[in-house]
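ARCHIVE CARD
CATEGORY: sequence design from structure
SOURCE FIELD: tokenized fold
FIELD CONTENT:
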């Protein structure tokens, strides 16, 4: 490779690393901002507005969750027209203004309205997830699979660390003499990340999903039904990814609201119950270094096996009659949680690709499933304090059963466009990064129709 080629490759690598860092920071901010004040809302409303009614907190949480659920598919539709990077930037700018105003909210009603708007703009930051995974390439090669696996592991690490950071941030805001200052301080982080997003990601090519629609239209014009025959398997893969994600998220959250009370009844004490509550996160982080090795050995079997391990850990916790059994169950559940989170996200991105609309469709379904978790937990705990753990174990076992259905290659394999050989020869000397991408998908022969990806595959988008 010439010196110029090496310099170019080095520059591209440095740009990609900066882009990944910015997107990971946006994801971390989204996770922390969404949950930092939630455990402390009753105390916050009492200090700011003199409201002691717990129903005010419940109303606030439900309205914000519904607002987020309604806003997410709208951002997904916007991703059909604008790039993910641009939408993330818009979300950061909107959140910066609203976070500043939130600290100045004169009443509970104003705080609720502004928070609803913030949740709506923050939903755009979820688009940083597929944008981050897109920076790791596709799964067209073994190296691509490992790169994507590394990216998903990074997301899982950020998720678990954000649980600790958000708790510390929320407690710090409440400890301030004037909590309003801490609330408005989020605007500073929003602004900083918006500047970095504009300077670093604004110079990188964004992706829009309109190209997939153009490809599908052109394929139909060419008189082939290959795209249509591939669309149904893609939709089935998307539906299965959503169902597995819903079951996994539900099972991981349904036992949370009343777990500390259950642990205290077994004699853990208040401090011990808190430790047991976070123990699965510690266990999950501990197994992440071996995820790649497990995936190399197990392949697609990693998903059902990890979900089965998680279900076994939840069942062990449910049946535990003493603290040692509860500790063992939580540790085992954490192992399944760490491996399962990676495997579930890998399955989801394999189905949705790294574009906005399909990703937000699955995320909206998963968010709707989360709304049912506290309702189910309340209903279960009215019969037995340990019953939410049994419900969680059963639902995660159901997720394991669903994941046994392997995704068809049509849902994940990238399309390799059939080009003229003379064109191939003319572009052999051009580096892959600089080759122009075809705007349309040529008609595929019937012999390859059964193994090609749908028109929505990430290879076509790119």
């Amino acid at each position: 490779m010439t010196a110029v080629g090496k310099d170019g490759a080095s520059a591209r690598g440095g740009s990609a690393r900066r882009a990944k860092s910015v997107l990971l920071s946006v994801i971390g901010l989204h996770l922390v901002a969404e949950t930092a004040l939630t455990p402390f809302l009753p105390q916050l409303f009492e200090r700011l507005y003199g409201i002691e009614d717990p129903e005010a907190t419940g109303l606030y949480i439900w309205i914000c969750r519904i607002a987020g659920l309604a806003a997410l598919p709208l951002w997904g539709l916007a991703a059909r027209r604008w790039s993910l990077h641009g939408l993330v930037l818009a979300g950061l700018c909107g959140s910066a203004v609203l976070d500043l105003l939130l600290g100045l909210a004169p009443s509970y009603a104003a705080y609720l309205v502004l928070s609803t708007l913030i949740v709506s703009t923050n939903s755009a930051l979820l688009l940083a997830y597929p944008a981050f995974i897109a920076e790791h390439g596709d799964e067209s090669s073994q190296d691509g699979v490992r790169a994507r696996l590394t990216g998903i592991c990074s997301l899982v690490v950020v998720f678990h660390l954000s649980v600790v950071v958000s708790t510390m941030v929320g407690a710090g805001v409440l400890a301030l003499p004037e909590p309003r200052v801490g609330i408005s301080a989020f605007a500073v982080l929003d602004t900083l990340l918006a500047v970095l997003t504009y300077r670093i990601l604004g110079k990188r090519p964004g992706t829009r999903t309109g190209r997939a629609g153009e490809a599908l239209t052109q394929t139909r014009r060419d008189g082939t039904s290959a795209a249509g025959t591939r669309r149904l398997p893609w939709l089935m893969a998307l539906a299965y990814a959503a169902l597995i994600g819903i079951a996994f998220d539900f099972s991981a959250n349904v036992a949370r609201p009343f777990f500390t009370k259950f642990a205290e009844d077994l004699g853990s004490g208040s401090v011990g119950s808190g430790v047991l509550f976070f123990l699965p996160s510690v266990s999950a982080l501990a197994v992440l270094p071996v995820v790649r090795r497990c995936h190399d050995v197990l392949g697609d079997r990693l998903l059902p096996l990890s979900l089965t391990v998680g279900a076994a850990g939840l069942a062990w916790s449910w049946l535990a009659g003493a603290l040692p059994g509860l500790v063992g169950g939580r540790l085992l559940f954490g192992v399944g949680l760490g491996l399962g989170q990676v495997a579930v996200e890998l399955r989801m991105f394999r189905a949705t690709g790294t574009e906005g609309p399909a990703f937000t469709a699955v995320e909206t379904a998963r968010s709707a499933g989360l709304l049912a978790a506290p309702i189910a937990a309340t209903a279960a705990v009215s019969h037995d304090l340990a019953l939410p753990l049994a419900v969680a174990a059963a639902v995660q076992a159901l997720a394991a059963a669903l994941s046994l259905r392997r995704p068809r290659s049509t849902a994940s394999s990238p399309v390799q466009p059939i080009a003229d050989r003379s064109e191939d020869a003319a572009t052999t000397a051009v580096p892959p990064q600089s080759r122009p991408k075809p705007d349309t998908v040529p008609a595929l022969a019937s012999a390859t129709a059964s193994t090609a990806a749908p028109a929505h595959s990430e290879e076509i988008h790119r």
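CARD ANNOTATION: Residues 19 and 216 are 30 Å apart (CA to CA). The longest helix spans residues 142-175.
SHELF: design records, drawer C
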